[in-house]
Write a structure and sequence with these properties.
Elements lengths: L19 H12 L6 H16 L1
Length: about 55
C-alpha cells in the first residue's frame, strides 16, 4: 500500500496553521482507510518481513 503523492503540504512546518475544514477533511480521509485486526496485522507484517529477508 502506498501513500498519495498529491498531498504536498508539509504538515510539520511551524507557523502555517491549517483551516478547520481542511483538518476535518484529512481526518475523514484517514478514517476511510483500511483497518486491520491485530492478528491480521501480525500475519501481514511477518509475511512482509520474511519477504524483505530474502
Amino acid at each position: 500500500m502506498k501513500t498519495k503523492k498529491n498531498n504536498s503540504d508539509n504538515l510539520a512546518t511551524p507557523g502555517k496553521p491549517m483551516s478547520q475544514k481542511k483538518f476535518a477533511s484529512m481526518i475523514k480521509e484517514a478514517e476511510e482507510g483500511e483497518f486491520l485486526s491485530i492478528e491480521e496485522f501480525k500475519t501481514r507484517f511477518e509475511a512482509w518481513r520474511l519477504q524483505r529477508k530474502k
